[in-house]
Amino acid sequence: RYGAGVLLKHTNGATVVGVSARHAQNGIGLIEARDSYVADNEGWSVATLKGTVAPFRILHEFFGEDRNPATITRDEGRALYAAVRGLPTNYTKRKALKGLTLVEAVAKGQELGLPTLLAKTVNDTYMTFISGAFRWAVQEGWTTLNPVDGLSMVDEVAAEDKRDPFTVDQINTLF
Q1: What is the 3-state secondary structure (H, E, C) of the chain?
Q2: Mind listing the pLDDT tens digit for each residue in 115-135?
């Protein structure tokens, strides 16, 4: 495990460990916390690592990269959750939302009536990683609060209603 403010640099195959100057003055920032969290989970697959990109981008944009996780309140966690719930689908790819901040994209998406992320995406893609990172920061002693703990979206569509059952023709084709 790496303590608060530890930086890992890989140079010619060697790992150099050091403490950032900013941490020594102000405490851990979200970027350093993210890097340490990912380093502490070295067994993650490439797919899992790719899955962290969007949630951490949202987290950094919402709070700022240098924000100390210990200063984020429950109310701010709820505001982040509300923003994630309001994100339009594929918001980074939509021309109408290009160049907008997260909060601006949510507002513009509502104004345009764009569809928002599904509950599964909000919960499994965004909130799971964000909450996991804060839970890890609590374990590391970098904060005492997970500001998004327990915040998850209820899926209003029952699992059996999400897809139609196979037709007789489809079943015959399968067999």
Answers
A1: CCCCCEEEEEECCEEEEEECHHHHHHCCCHHHHHHHHHHHCCCCCHHHHHHCHHHHHHHHHHHCCCCCHHHCCHHHHHHHHHHHHCCECCCCCCHHHCCCCHHHHHHHHHHHCCCECCHHHHHHHHHHHHHHHHHHHHHHCCCCCCCCCCCCCCCCCCHHHCCCCCCHHHHHHHC
A2: 999 999 999 999 999 999 999
